[in-house]
Specification:
There is one protein chain. The chain is an alpha/beta fold. Helices cover about 40% and strands about 15% of the residues. The protein has helices spanning about 15-30, 50-55, 65-70, 80-90, 95-105, 120-125, 145-150; strands at about 5-10, 35, 40, 75, 110-115, 140-145. The chain has a four-stranded mixed beta sheet with strand order 2-5-1-6, sandwiched between helices. A two-stranded parallel ribbon has the order 3-4. The radius of gyration is 15 Å and the shape is globular.
């Protein structure tokens, strides 16, 4: 197992708690899991969702700054959906930056990633993930490796 991706498009549907619980579950079974939040909005400092993940996992909140940049590549002040906060703050969300951070973490950890960006992939299949302006509406989507699903369910 190298990665899980937890996503949802509404606020307070449980994405953050699911990430922390899943990573804590894996760590309790000897898997060196970390959580990653690709874009945290509504913050200028430590990402609140990562703090919650780490608290649930029983880990200290403080990490070296270079690791924080991999755990949360984008931290934006405006409290809204990532694309709206980025637009308002004049930031371009570069997917290659997110992928590079993921790859650096993946080299030494299994990853539970939280984010909204994967829902963009729904559009090319004729579906919609949420209201594009607010990012609300689709609930929560959990993507797990097929082998792990089959081995545990």
């Amino acid at each position: 197992m190298k990665g899980f991706f937890v996503t949802g498009t509404d606020t307070h549907v449980g994405k953050t708690v699911v990430c922390g619980l899943l990573a804590g579950f894996l760590r309790a079974r000897g898997i060196d899991a970390v959580t990653q939040k690709w874009v945290q909005t509504g913050t200028s400092g430590w990402p609140a969702d990562l703090a919650t993940h780490r608290r649930i996992m029983g880990l200290p909140e403080d990490v070296p700054p270079e690791q924080l940049d991999d755990l949360c590549p984008y931290r934006l002040c405006f409290p809204s959906s990532p694309h709206l906060a980025a637009e308002r703050e004049g930031v371009e969300i570069d997917l290659s930056r997110i992928e590079a951070a993921y790859r650096r973490l993946e080299a030494s950890h299994d990853i539970v990633a939280q984010g909204l960006l994967a829902l963009e992939n729904l559009d090319h299949r004729g579906a919609t993930g949420a209201d594009e302006a607010a990012g609300d509406g689709a609930g929560m989507l959990l993507q797990i490796p097929d082998r792990l699903f089959r081995d545990t369910v």
